[in-house]
């Protein structure tokens, strides 16, 4: 299987999970998914693509398998927020800091797509969106609601950094609901 996921994406997910769940929580998650090798040889913070979609999907879908969909969604959002903050703290987006806010968020989503090896940032009218037909976060999960809340958390942190106000990230489509893609739109807060 082709390696399309960067070390940074995997490491930020691991770091954020440990920060939210603690070291033992991270170990339990990794042990459950036969992923202890990720703790024994932690990925670095590079954009080098050393991981497969299946490895990334196994990491993220285990949150739902262990906690159920509702508990997993709440935890995944927190992990996403921590991951988003950590991504910002790496300085990876610093070259965008002087752009207008809407351009910043679009560039951040483009960079995210590059780092994860999936999805694309796009503009449809006035809406900035990230569309990911290759989402593995909800792999083998069925639910009546969108479940990929980790990206909502991360993207909401990106929105704050970009300086956009009065908007948040909404997952308007999710493969767990039977949609053909997972789609996140930056929309006005109601």
Question: What is this structure, in a nutshell?
Answer:
The chain is an alpha+beta fold and 190 residues long.
Model description:
The structure is a single chain. With 190 residues, the protein is of the alpha+beta class. It is globular and about 45 Å long. The protein has helices at residues 7-32, 37-40, 53-89, 101-116, 149-162; strands spanning 3-6, 49-52, 120-124, 127-132, 167-173, 182-188. The N and C termini lie far apart (42 Å). It has a single domain, classed as H-NOX domain, CATH 3.90.1520.10.
Rg of Cα set: 16 Å
Strand order, sheet with most strands: 3-4-6-5
Number of helices: 5
Distance between the termini: 42 Å
What keywords describe this structure?
6 strands; 5 helices; single chain; 190 residues; alpha+beta; H-NOX domain
